[in-house]
Each structure stands twice: as C-alpha cells, then as structure tokens.
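About this split. The held-out portion is used to measure sequence recovery: a designer receives only the structure tokens and must propose an amino acid at every position. Recovery is the fraction of positions where the proposal matches the reference. Here is one held-out target exactly as it appears in the evaluation file.
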C-alpha cells in the first residue's frame, strides 16, 4: 500500500494528506525528518540507498530519512524508521527544523519541512538490504571534501541540507558527542598526540586511574597556552580571553560560547590541532567534570595561577627578550612550574603515603616544569622569533654583548652559542631535580616513574641537539626516543639505574648550579 504523507504549511501546521508519489510529483510541502547518528569518535553514519529504491538509488545519504504517518508523532516515526532501515536504536534529540526543496531523479521534487534529529551509536548497524545496500562511518572533514569534489555521489537532499544556512553539522556532532559518556574520553585520547608528541608517549605509562586526569590537565593548560600564543589577538584581548577561559573552567561561563568566539579569532599561524582543541573545549570540560574533587581543585588552582601569570607577561613579550633571568624564572613557573605542582597533588591523591613529602615533592616538581619549559624555549626559539617573541633574558644576553635583533636562524653566532650553553646548563640542573622527584616515587609504581623519566630523557636529548646546533630547529629522532624508552624499562625500579641513565642522556651537557632553595613566586 502506498504511503500517505502529512501536508503542512510553512509553520508545520497540518493542512491535509497526500499519497507519497503524487506529493513528490507536485512538490507539495510535507512533514519529514532527517537523522544524523554519530559515534563516540564524532564520525557520521552514512547509508547507501539500495538499488531497488524508486529514486536516488545507489546514492549515499545521511543515516536515515523518512516521513511520519498521519496521526504519528514525528519522533516516534524517526525511531521507527531508524530501526526499519538501519537496524539500530538509540536516543534521539531534535536539534532544529528547516525547509528545503530539491529535484530528484524521476522528475520528482522533495519539498520538506524537515525535523533534524541527532543521536549517538557505537555498535554495528544491521541495515535492511531493501533500504540500504551499504553503510559507513565518515569523518566530517572527509564528508566536506566529498561534497566539494563529488556531490553527484550524494542524494540531492543531502547536498541541499549540508549547504543550507541553518545546517550546523559540526555543532550537531559536538552535541551528540557530549551526550555519549565515552565520547569526551575518546576525543581526549584522539587529540593528545596531535598537540603533544611527548605527552602522547608518556601519559599512557601512568596508572589507569591517573591517565584521564593528567591528560585533561595538560589539554586544559594547552588551551590557555594557545590563547597566549595566538598572534591575531592583542594583549588586551588575550587578557580578556584568559579571564573568560578561567571563568568557564570555574563553572561560571559557557564553554561552547567561548570556544565558538575564540575559534573565530584563531589564525592559521596557530596549529590546526590547537584550533581543533579550542573548538572542542566542551568535550575536554566534560572529562574534567568526571574527575574527583581533589583533582579538579588542583587543576583549577593551576589554571588560576597560569592564566593570571600569562596575562602579566602579555605586555613583556617581544623580540627584545625578558628583562632578567629572575623574570624568566617567574615566567617559567607560571606556565610550567605550576603544572609540576599539580602533578604532585595528583600523585599524592593516588598514593597518599607521598603526602609526608608534599613540600619536597612540590619544590622538585617546580623544577620539572621549569626544566621542560626552558627546553621548549630553546627548541622553539626560531619559531617564536617568527611570531615576534623572544624569551631569552636581556641580562644574560648583555653579559655576552649580544643583541637579539642580530640573531638569524641558520647562522651560527659564537655569542649566541654561549648564551644557549648557559641556558642549557640551567635546564639540565632543573631536570636533575626532576629526577630526584622521580626517585621519590616508590618503585612499586613503575608507570609513574616511566612517565617522569621518559619526559626528562626526551628533554635531555632535545637539549643535546640544541647545544650542538643552536642556530637550527631541533627534533629528537625516533631512534633516540626508542633508546630512552628501552633503557628506562630496564632500569625503572632501580634508583641507581635511573641515575646512570640520566648521566648517559646528559653527557657533554653543561651544568649551571641552582640556588639551594628556589621557592615559587607568590601566587597571583
């Protein structure tokens, strides 16, 4: 029996009914629905219409489309057809309506008041072969490329919906992922290696209980760093967005609103992965919401110090460098040393016996963060100069009668070599303190030790490359990474073995002694 459709006016009020084929021949406006199902990775489920369909056969389209029957609720019809066509069931949420008109094969016209539903599903569809001959999951960028290069492979209405001004496919994807309890964690795991090669290697070494929290803390800090580094923002705008960002982390602002606004300001000079991270800020905050109060408090305290400190240094950033080594120490504390303090709180929360050494651990952890930050400053010095920033201290440069403006990438300057040697020595000294931190972790927690020592080892290898060629960009090879990883696994339970490994990795590096006590700057 031929299906009967509901005819409507422009406000979706029913004005009659009509047989399906006649309605499509005459292009009468009728009620319909389109379903977009996403998995926990944010991929969209597509179907390929069966060869026996009376129009648009063998074309790809969104997950499911259909029409409610007279007297049937639209949402009920959406669930019914999703089961009939794709053999799956999941919660659906209506996100919007739109009206569109599109010509389809057979001299027919789709003219629909379309209710858009989204949902999440992670199983395997059981498509009805009389409805859909194939199905596939697709990333949104791949779909957009497909639309641009081969729109004829997609149904006319799918092309029209995707091009409609009211279509918000990325928003629908994000909303669907937010409703999937596994999606925020999956996204966090997916984006981490795109923004940090080092921490993508080291965080998985941690005990399972610690991994989500440490990854979450890193990504939240990375977003603050992205705001700080964005060249398209003025100093005033950076301070404004750092304040807004902390309000969001504190639960006093809308993450989606801020991420949308910030995304509009990010230029292509910011890494694509960092722009992607900002756009998915709500997912990272969804993970944060699952952490225990102690971990959330530690992250909040960290970001309070970090965002306030970054704002302080906005007007000091420039090609002239920071004024003094003391100012550089202060900067390193705000952007990295405080992260070491946060890790200390995480580790104590995981292993309460460490609480008796809290202050010692925090002192050493500040050096862990500072050593890594100094390493990054040296590694990225030429990239930073391209965006108008230099973090080398003026007082150190003055000792060698060196002006930052004369430095050129690829040109070896003896004075610059000496300045870099001094900073490498300071970073080495901080990383030695970081090793002391690692050795205070009981050997029964080899994963935490690996996390620390791998990170320290990769920093030392970077410093060796910088020391050898300060005029050139530095990158640790895969062979060097494998070397550190392998030797650490052999010696991770032995304090003597880890000390020997540090000595081996740091060979020929200069060493600049630090003051016995180097307290953190006062909290802002």
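Reference sequence for scoring:
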């Amino acid at each position: 029996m031929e299906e009967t459709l509901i005819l409507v006016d422009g406000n979706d009020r029913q004005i009659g009914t009509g047989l399906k084929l006649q309605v499509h021949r005459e292009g009468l406006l009728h009620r319909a629905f389109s379903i977009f199902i996403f998995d926990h990775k944010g991929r969209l489920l597509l179907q390929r219409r069966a060869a026996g369909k009376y129009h648009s056969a063998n074309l790809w389209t969104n997950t499911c489309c259909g029409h409610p029957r007279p007297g049937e609720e639209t949402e009920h019809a959406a669930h019914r057809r999703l089961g009939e066509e794709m053999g799956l069931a999941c919660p659906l949420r209506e996100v919007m309506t739109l009206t569109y008109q599109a010509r389809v094969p057979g001299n027919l016209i789709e003219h629909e008041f379309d209710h858009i539903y989204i949902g999440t599903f992670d199983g395997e569809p059981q498509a009805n072969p009389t409805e859909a001959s194939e199905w596939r999951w697709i990333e949104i960028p791949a779909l957009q490329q497909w639309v641009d290069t081969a729109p004829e492979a997609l149904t006319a209405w799918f092309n029209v919906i995707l091009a409609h001004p009211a279509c918000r496919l990325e928003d629908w994807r994000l909303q669907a992922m937010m409703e999937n309890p596994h999606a925020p964690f999956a996204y966090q795991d997916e984006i981490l290696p795109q923004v940090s090669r080092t921490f993508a290697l080291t965080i998985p070494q941690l005990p399972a209980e610690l991994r989500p929290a440490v990854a979450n803390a890193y990504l939240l800090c990375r977003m603050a760093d992205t705001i700080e580094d964005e060249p398209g923002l003025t100093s005033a705008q950076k301070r404004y967005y750092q304040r807004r960002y902390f309000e969001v982390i504190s639960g006093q602002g809308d993450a989606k609103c801020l991420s949308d606004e910030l995304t509009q300001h990010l230029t292509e000079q910011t890494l694509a992965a960092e722009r992607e991270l900002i756009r998915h800020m709500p997912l990272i905050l969804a993970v944060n919401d699952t952490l225990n109060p102690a971990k959330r408090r530690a992250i909040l305290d960290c970001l309070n110090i970090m965002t306030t400190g970054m704002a302080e240094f906005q007007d000091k950033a420039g090609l002239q460098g920071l004024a003094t080594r003391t100012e550089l120490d202060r900067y390193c504390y705000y952007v990295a040393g405080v992260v070491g303090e946060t890790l200390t709180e995480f580790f104590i929360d995981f292993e309460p016996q460490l609480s008796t050494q809290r202050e010692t651990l925090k002192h050493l952890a500040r050096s862990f963060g500072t050593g890594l930050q100094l390493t990054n400053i040296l590694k990225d010095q030429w990239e930073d100069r391209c965006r108008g920033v230099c973090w080398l201290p003026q007082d150190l440069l003055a000792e060698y009668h060196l002006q930052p403006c004369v430095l050129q990438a690829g040109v070896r300057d003896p004075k610059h070599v000496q300045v870099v040697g001094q900073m490498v020595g300071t970073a080495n000294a901080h990383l030695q303190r970081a090793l002391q931190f690692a050795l205070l972790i009981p050997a029964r927690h080899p994963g935490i030790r690996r996390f620390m020592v791998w990170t320290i080892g990769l920093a030392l290898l970077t410093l060796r490359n910088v020391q050898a060629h300060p005029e050139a960009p530095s990158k640790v090879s895969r062979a060097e990474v494998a070397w550190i990883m392998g030797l650490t696994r052999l010696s991770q339970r032995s304090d003597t073995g880890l000390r020997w490994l540090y000595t081996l990795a740091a060979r020929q590096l200069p060493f600049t002694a630090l003051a016995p006590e180097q307290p953190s700057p006062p909290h802002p």
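Annotator remark: The beta strands are 4-8, 14-19, 30-38, 44-49, 60-61, 64-66, 93-104, 108-120, 132-138.
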